[in-house]
Amino acid sequence: MLRRIVRALGARRRKSGPQGGRPSTVQSGAIPYAWSDDEPTYLLITSRRTGRWIFPKGVVEPDMTPSASAAKEAWEEAGVRGLIDNTAVGTYRTEKVERHSTRMIAVDLYPLRVDDQAGDWPERRSRRRHWATHRQARRLIDNPELLAVLDRLHENLIQGAADTGKPGKRRRQPRKRVRTR
Q: Residues 6 or more apart from 18 whose CB is under 8 A from it?
């Protein structure tokens, strides 16, 4: 009975999952990484709504380039700063849940080599952060497209280290800075 009423009113089914449909918005994000021994580690944060493990992302600011906007999101959401690459390593799609609707977004991800990690940052009270190896990050992330982008960056970093005989500028741990006011 309810199905007949819904059909009569002309309601449309929305496509489920991030695989269908065309993204209505493009955002930018960062994949923060640092070298630990001879292996890159990645900084994951939790989303505020669901608590899933993700990388920092957000709307591209009108007066900023996508990579600069991604670096800004990394600071606001994860409390890290560093050198951001101007070339996206990849794009993934996800659904953005809003009050009464869901829409598809595409996120361009830029590698961010972390040089500084703060003890206090704008979204500290609403997110958790966690440094993870590639293997650990693969277990924590649940979006297959995001995993593919992470795998691509990991392969690029490992290959770059193999080509030069050493991983770029590396530190065992990003320098931690605690703000005092």
A: 92, 93, 94, 95, 104, 143, 145
Which whole-number Å values give the CA distances from 95 to 18, 22, 40, 41, 105, in the listed order? Answer: 6, 11, 28, 26, 6
pTM above threshold 0.90:
no
User: Residue 10 — very low, low, confident or very high, per pLDDT cuts 50/70/90?
Assistant: very low
What long-range pairs does 9-14 form, CB within 8 A, spacing at least 24? 14/102
pLDDT on residue 23: 67
In percent, how much of the chain has pLDDT > 70?
77
| Cα–Cα distance for residue pair 141/133, rounded to 1 Å | 12
Tokens of 122: 């704008």
Largest CA distance in the chain: 68
- 133-152 pLDDT, tens digit per residue, is 999 999 999 999 999 999 99
State the residue for tokens 């605690």. 178
Give the position of tokens 């695989």: 19
On the question of pLDDT at 20 being above 90, the answer is no
